Records
---
Amino acid sequence: MLEIVLDSEPSHCQTLRWRGDLHRYMAEDKAAMAVYKRASDAMQDGGLVLHATLVVPCVATEQY
Amino acid sequence: MYSPKGLRTAIDFGLAEASAALRDLDSAAEYYHKVVDAVPDHSKAVGALAQTEFLRHSRSRSNSKGSAVSRRILSLDSIEKLFLRALDCNPDDTQNLINFAQFMKTARNNLEGAKGLLYKATLLQPCNGGILGNYAAVLSKSGDLKRAEVWCQHPVSHVFAVVLI
C-alpha cells in the first residue's frame, strides 16, 4: 500500500518515512537508508504537502 | 499527524538506526546528535547515542592508524554523562542498563556498578536469558562465585552463562 501511495506521490515525506520504518522492521537496512534519505531530501524540498487522494479516505472513514 | 519538526526528527532517528545497523558509526553518531539536539529527552536516542559514541571510542583506541572521522571522539566522561542522561529520561530501559553495564565493566573497570545495573535489568526482565547470563558472568568475574552459581542454575540463564563464563 505504501508503494502504491509512493507511485503517485514519490516525494511524500511521511509516507517515505513509513516505508523506511517498514524496511527497517524487515531488517532491510540499506533499503531503509535509501528511503530515509529520499524522505530527508524531499523534506528539504518542501515535500510535506498532503495530496488530496491521501486526505479524502481518512475523512470518509471518520464520517461513516 | 507529525509536525514538520517531529517528522524531521523521526527521519533522522531512522537514518541513525539504519546507519548503526550497517555499522556506519560516524554517520549514526551524526544523526543521533541531530535527534538529541532537537529532542533532548528522547531517551532511546540519548541511550543509542551513548552506546554509539562508546563504540566509536573503543574503535579509535583499537585503531592506532586513526581513520578520518567527521565528528570528534567524545571522552569517556562525556559518554558516561550521556548514559546517565538516558537513564534519567527512562530509568527502566533495559537496553540502556545493559549497555551502561558493559561500559562500566570495560571502560571503567567498575564491576560493582555493572552488577547493580544488570541486577536492575534482571528485575525488569526476569526471563531474559541474555541478561541473566551477563549478570552471572559479572558476579563470577567479581569473585562472587556462590551467587554466580545460583544465577547460572536459573532455568533461563544457564545456557548463556556457561558460554560467557
---
Amino acid sequence: MRDQKSTLLNDTRVRGWIAQALVLAILLGLAWYGMYNVGQNLQKAGITTGFGFLSEPSGFDIGQTLIPYSSKSSYFDALKVGILNTLLVSVFGIIASTILGFFLGVIRLSPNWLIAKMAGAYTEMIRNIPLLLQVLFWYLAILAPLPGPRAALNFQDVIFLCNRGMQIPKPVWEPGCGVVLVSIGVAILASVALIFWARRRQVMTGQRFPAVLVSLALLVAVPLAALVATDFPVSWDVPALRGFNFRGGVTILPELIALWLSLTLYSATFIGEYVRAGIMAVDKGQREAAEALGYRPWLMYRMVIIPQAMRVVTPPLIGQHLTLIKNSSLAVVIGYPDLVHVFAGTALNQSGQAVEIICITIAVYLTISLVISAFLNWYNNKFALRGF
Amino acid sequence: MAEEKWQPSPSLPSPDLGTGVIGWLRQNLFSTPGNSLLSLLGIAILVVTVPPFVQWAILQANWFGDSRAVCDAAAAEGSTGACWVFINVRMDVFLYGFYPELERWRVNYTALVLGFSLIPLLLPDWFKGVRNQIVLGLVGTVCALAIFGVIPAAFMAAYLFMPLLLVRIPGADIGGLASGQGALSNVMRLALAAGVGVALYYLVFFLVEQNAAFPIALAGTMTVLVPLFMGRLSATIWRWALLFTVFPVFAYFMLSGDVFGLTHVETHYWGGLFLSLVVSGTGLGSALPIGILLALGRRSELPVIRVSCVTFIEFIRGVPLVSVLFLASVMFPLFLPDNLTIDKLLRALVGIAFFYAAYMAEVIRGGLQAIPKGQYEAAEALGWTYWKMMGVIILPQTLRLVIPGLSNNFLSLLKDTTLVAVIGLLDLLGIAKAAMADTEWLGFTKEAYIFAGIVFWILCFAMSRYFLYLEKKYHMNYQ
C-alpha cells in the first residue's frame, strides 16, 4: 500500500498535475482575494466602479492639447490628449535619436581618431547616467533658469527662447490654400512612386537613378510652384512680446523640449552602439570588394555596408524605439502632459478611479508595444537571412 | 674571377612625415580633406565646450566653506564658478537622507559587513585558498572593532568565518535526509526545516526578543533548507547562501531597528545614496533568481505554469516602469484588506524586482535555448531530477552565456532605481531635489545634478567594467 502511494507521488505526470493544480489554485485564490478586497475598499470609499466616469466632465485644464480640449471636456478626451502628447514626444524622439544614433555609430568607426574618440566619450558618458537625472537636469538646471519673456533669447525676431518655452511662428492658412495642401500630397505620392520605380529599374537593368535627389527636388518645387500660382495664400503668425508674455505663434513647452532632448540624447547612445555592432558584423570581404570596385566611402556605406548591417541593427533598433516610448512616461516628473501625467496622475486624483485608470494606462502601453512587436516579427520573417 | 657577392642596399628610413607626432597626426586626423575638416570641427567643439566647463567646475569653483556666504562673496568679486560648498555642506543628507544622525553608524556598519561579504564572492580568484579567506575575516573583524566596537566586531567575525566552519561540519546523513530522492524525502526535508524554524521562533521569542523571533526563524529555516536540498557545499556556495538568508535579516534589523535596543527608524527617514543602494541592491539580488524561475517556467512542459509565466513576462515588458511603480503605490493597497498595510518602500522594491525579473527571464531564456540538446539528454540519461539537471548542468552554462545581456539589465536596473523618486521616495535624486528647495541654497541646481550624475556614472561605469571582466573570465567556446 505504502509502496504504491510513493510510486504515484514519484510519477512525473502526477506530480506535474499536482504542481499545476497548486499554482492555479494559488493564483485564482490570490485574484479572488484581491478582487474581494478591492470591492470592500471601494465600497467604503464610496467610489462606484466601472468605466462610466469616462464620459463625465474632467474639470481640469491641460497645458498642451493637440485636439480641442477644455475643462468641460470628458475624461475620455483627457485620455486622448494624453495619448497624443505621448505619441508626439515619442515620434519626434524616435526620429531624432535614430538620426543621431546612426551618426554616432558611423563616426565611432571612423578612421579619424579624434572624432571616433569624441563619439566614444559621449556614448560612455551619457548612457551611464540615469535618464531621469538627465530629464531633470535639462528641465531644472538648463531651461528653468532661462530669462523671462521680456529678456527672451531672440533669434532674428522670429523665434524666441525663454523660461516659458520656445516661441515659433505658426502658419495661417487663408482661402485658396487647399491647392497648396493638395500639391504637397501629390509631391509626396510622386516621390514615393519615383523611389519604387527607380528601385525596380535598378533591379531589372542595373542602372541607377538619383531618386532621392529628384524626389527631394519634387517635394520642394511642387508646393513652391503651387504657392506662386495661387499667390501665397499662407501667412506666418509671428510671435511678439505683448505685455508680460508672447502673443501669436506656437509655444513649445519647456517640458516638451527637456523631455525630447534628453530622450533623444540618451536613446541615441544605445542606437549608436547597435549601429556600430551592425556595421562590424558585416563581413570584411564586403568592404574590400566595394573598395576594389572603386566605390567612394559614402557610396560604399550607402550601397553595401548599411543595407547588410540593417539586418542586424533593426531588431534592437525597434526595441530601443519601444523603450523610448515607455521612457517618455518620465514626463510625469517634470509635468509634461503625457498619458501618465494627465491620466494616471491628474485624472486619477480627480476621479479616484485608481483601478480603472491604471488598467487603461497599462492597456494603452501594452497595445503600443504589441503593435510594434508584431511589426518586428513581420520584419524578421521577411528580411532575416535564412539557410545558414 | 672572383664572384662578387650581391649585397642588399640598406633599407631606407621611413619617410619623415610617416612617423612621430606629425606622422600620427597626418595619418589619423588629416589624411583626406574631408577628414581634416571633421578634425577641425571636433577641435572646435572641444574648444567651445571643455575650457569653459573646466573653468566653471574646477578653476573658478568654490570648494570649501560652511555657508552660502562663501559662494556669494566669490560671485560678488566676479567669479562665475560652481559652488561645491553646497554639496560639501549637505553631504550627510546626500549620503543618508534624513536618517537620524546618531544612528548613521548602523548604515555604515551594514555597508561594511556587505562589503566584506561581497569581496570574496566578486573576486573569487583571490580567495581560492583558505589562508586569504582567514586574512579577510581578520581584517574585517579588526575594522569593525576599530570603528564600531566589540559586539559589531563579534558579529562580523561570526558572519565571515561561518562559511569556513560550516564546510568542516561532517555530514551525518540521518535517515537519508541529505541524499534521499523522491517526493517523500522532500517532504521530510521540508518538515525538518519547518521544525527548526518553529524551534528557533520560540527560543528567540521567549529567551531573547519578541520582535526578532519571526525574521530569525525565517532566516534559520532558509539556511537549513540549503544543505538539505543541495548536499555538501563549498565555502563559496555557503557565502552566497548566507548572503541571501542571514544578511537580509541582519540588514533589516540594523537599518530598521526596533530590536535588540536599536531605535526604530521608519523607512520614510531613509534617503540619499543609502536608499539608492538599498533599492538597487535588493533589486539586483532578487530580480535574477525570480528571472531564472520565470525563464524556467516559460520553458516548462506544464501548460498552466508556462501560460502564467508567458503572460506575466509579456505584460511586464509591455509597460513602463513608472506605471508599475504607480500600480504598486496607488492601486496595490486597494487589493489588501483594511488592517494590512505594506510599507511603501517594500512595495516599490517588489515592483522593481518583478519588473526587472521579466527582462532577466527573457535574457536567460535566450541562453537556455543556446545550450546544446545533448547537455539536457546527458543529464536525463544519468537519471537526474529536473532541479539537479538545471542547477548543476544547464544553468551554470546558461548564465555564462548570457553575461552581456544580464550586464545590460543590471545597469538599467541600477539607473532606473532613480524612478522611485516618482512615487515620493527620497533616493539620491529625490534628496538632490529636496536640497535644492532649501531656501538657503536656492539656485544651485546644476551643482546638485552634476554631483548626482557623477556618483551614478561611477557606479554604472564600475559595474560595466566588472561585467566585462566576468565576460572575459567565463568566455566559452563551443567549437
---
Amino acid sequence: MPIYSTRKLILLFLVSVLIGLVAVVGSLPAVNYYNHSRPPNIGALRQQIVYYFGEDSNPLFNRTVTRLGTGLVPVIRLDSSPGLTPASNQTLKMTGHSDSFVIVSGDWIAKRVSDNQTQTFLYNLLSKGGKLVAVGGPTHTLFDAVIASHVGNQTSATIFPQPADWPCTGFWLKTTMLKNGGTSLYPSYLSQNTTDPDAIIDGWNSWLTGVTG
Amino acid sequence: MTSSQPEEEELARQVSGEYNTLRVYIYMLKTGRSSSGGVQRALGFSSPTLAVHHLEKLSKLGLVDEQYDGTFLVRSKSFGILKLYVRTGRWILPRTVFFAAIFATMASGFLVLALTQSEPFFFWVALVISLGGLFYSIYETQRFYWALPPA
C-alpha cells in the first residue's frame, strides 16, 4: 500500500480536479465545432422561393445570403440599384405569393421606410402571405416600413414597432382558420439574437414551421 | 516484479486470508507503532498472547519490526486487497476516491456550462454521464472502504 504524505494526497486531489477541468474546458470547443459543422435545418425554407436585394455591403447580410446560396436553398437576386424600383411589375409579380421569402439588410430597409415604391412592394408581398426578414444593421426599421406600408389594414391585429436592433428581424402575416370556416391574417414577428449565419437560417426554418414567432 | 510476485502471493495468503492478522496489520498501518497491549485493547482481543501471536506472524513476514522496548514498528507493503488503497497518516483511502474527485469536478463544470451556454443540450448529456460516473465511483469507494476489516 503506497504511503502518501498529506501534501502528496492534496496534490493528487488537485491533479484529479485538474483532469476534470481539462475534460470540461476541452468539451467547449468540441461542442462548438460540432454545432457549427452541422448544417442548418432548412426543410421548411426549401418550400419557399427565397429572394434578396443584393446591393448591400452589410457583412452579416452578405455572409447569411452567401451561406444560404452555398448548397442550402436557391436564392434569387432582386435588383434595386439607383434608378430601379423594388415595385417594378416584374418584381411585384415574382414576389407576390405566399411562398415568397424576401431577405433585405437593415441598412437597405432603413433607407426606404418612407419610399412609396418600397411601401407598394411590401404591401404586395406581405398581404399575400410572403415573408420579410432584415439581417444586420438597423433591423428595427423593418417594422417601421411594414407599418408605413399600411399592410396592417389586412389584419384586425395592431402591428407594433419593435425598438431593438436585433441581428435579424422578420415579419409575416400568417393565415389562420376561423371557426366559421373563413381565414384571417395575424402578424408574426421574428427577432434573432445571433450573428451566426447557420443559426439565423435555422431560426428562419423554425419560424416558418411555427416553432418560434 | 516477477521476483516479488510469489512474495506478494504469500503475504496475501498469510495476511489477507487471516481476518484477525489483517486487522492487526491495518491497525499497525494506521498507528505506525504499537505494543501488543495496545493492539489487544484497540482490537478487543481476549488476551495479549493473541495479539503477540499475530504481531510475531507479521514480524516473520517482514511486515512489522520488533523494537528493543517491546513495541512493534510497521513496514508498509502493498499486496492483495491493500493494493487498492492509499495511506496517508491514519487514513486508508480507496484509490477510487480520485475518480470520484474527477467526476465531481466534471459534473460541476458541465452544470455551469449547461446553465450558461446558448446551446446546452450536449452539456446536459455530459452532466448526466458525469453524475452517473460520480455516483458509481462513490458507491465503489464506499464498498472498498467497508471491505477492509475494522481496526
---
Amino acid sequence: MSYLISHPGDVLTLLLQHLRMTGIALGVAIALSVPLALLVTRLRWLAVPVLGGLGVFYTIPSLALIIFLVPLFGLNATSVIVAMVLYTQVILVRNLTVGLAGINPPVLEAARGMGMTVAQRWWRVQVPLVLPVFLAGVRIAAVVAIAIATIGAKFNAGGLGKLLFDGIQTNRYDKIVAGSMAVAALALTINGLLLTLEYYAQPQRRLQKET
Amino acid sequence: MSTLQFEDVSLRFAGGDRPAVNRVTCQVNSGEIVVILGPSGCGKTTLLKMVNRLYEPTEGAIFLDGVNIRQRAATQLRQQIGYVIQQSGLFPHMTVADNVAVVPRLLGWPKPQIQARIDELLALVRLPPGEFRDRYPAQLSGGQQQRVGIARALAGNPGIMLMDEPFGAIDAITRTALQDEILRLQNQLKKTILFVSHDVEEALRLADRILVMRLGEVVQFDTPFNLLTQPADDFVYTLLGADDRVRQLGLLRVASAMMALPPNYSNGHNPTLSHCDSLRNALSLILRTGAPALTVLKEGDPVGLLTLDHIRKSAMVRKDSPQ
C-alpha cells in the first residue's frame, strides 16, 4: 500500500500500459468474435470444430502460450496481446453463439413476418436481445485479459505485472503487495463497470425486479 | 379489407415425399373470417405462411386484391399484412407501446400519429394504455400478451390479418374470451382474416367459412353450417365430431339457421334472442317458453325468425352423407 502512495507516477505508467494491452486485445478479440459467431450461427456444423479449436487454446497455460508466440511476434507486448486475443476468443464466440441461439424462434419469426429487413432484424431485435449475454462474455474476457497482461511483464510488455515480478526478484514485499493489489483493484473495477453496463442493457429484466 | 385468391398453389419442401400443400385453389372474400382447420401436418400453417411470403409456393400463385404477391417486395408486402402467431412472439426487450409501434415505425409514420395509434389500439383490445403502455411482455399474462399481439398486428391498419394458432397455448377460459374479442373486433373493423386452428370448436365459433385440409389438400371449404350438415366425406364428419348433435348446436350461431323476416312480419309475442347466440340456447329457449318461433335481434332490431324446425334441420346430417 505504501509503495502505491509513494510512487504514484510509476504505478500510473504501469497501469496505463496494462490498460492499453487489455484494451487493444479486447478490441481485436471482439472484432474477431462477432463475424466468427455469425458464421458459426449460420453454418451449424462449424460450431463443434470452431468452438472445440478455440477451447484447445484455452487449455494451454497462458505462460506456455506466450512462449509459443515469442518466436513469431518477438519478445514484446504483441506476443502477449495475441495470446490474450486467442484466449478470450472462446469466451466471446461461445457467449455470442449461445446468445443468438437462445433468442426465442417466434420472436424472430414475428420480426420477419412483420416486414423487417435483415438489417432491421439484426439491429432492432437480435442485437438488443443478445447484448446482455455478449456483455457478460466481454466482462469475463476482460478479467481473463487483465490476468494474462500481468504475466506480460515477464515478456517485456510492461504493465502492473512488472511490480510483482520485480518485487519477487528483489525480495521487495511492498512491491509484491502493491502489484497484487493494483491488479486486483483493476480487475474488480473493470468487472464492476461492465456489470453495470450489462444491467442497463436489459431494461426488461431491470423492470421485472422492481415489480 | 382485402380479397385473397389461391390459384393452384403447391409447395413441395426439398426432400419431402409428398407436397406440404397440394394444388390449393380457393378465394377468401373481403371482410370474411376463414379458418383453416386440420390435424397437425396437414399443411395449414404452410398455406398461411405463403400469403406473407415466409414460404414461396413451388407452383401456382397467390393474389392479394387481385395483384400477384410475387410482384411486391416481401418486406413491403408483410408490412401491409397483420401477422399474429402462437405465443405472441412479442419482442421481450420492447415495451408494449414499442411492440405495437413496430410496423408504423417501419412504415415511417410521424411520431404523434404513432403515439395516438398506440393508445387507440390498446384501448381497442381493452388494455388501458395508462396502465399497460410501459410494461414489458414478461409482465403480462398469456392472454394479455396475445391482446398486445393482436394490437401489434392491427397497428399498420392492414386489410388482411393472418393468425397462426394464436390461442393455441392459452388456457380454455382465456381462449374463449379472446375468441369473443376477435368476433367483437371483427364486427367493428371488418378485416379479412385467415386463421389457422386445429381446434374444431374454435373454428366453428369464429369462422364465416372453414377450409378443411388434410395431407396438404383442401377437403372441403364451406360454412360451419354446411360442414356440419353436409360433410364432404368421413374425414370431415369425424373431424367435426358431427356425432354429438347437441354439442354441435352449441357451436352454431343462430344467424346460420334462421330465416329472414317475412314481409308481413309484425312483432308478436315471440321471445327474442341475439343473432350471435348459439342454437343450443335457442333450443333451450323454445323448450322453456313453448313458443312456436323466436325473433332474432341484431343490435336490437329484429332481423329473422327461428323455429324448432330450423334447429332440427341444422342438427340433421343429410341422407346422402356418410354416417
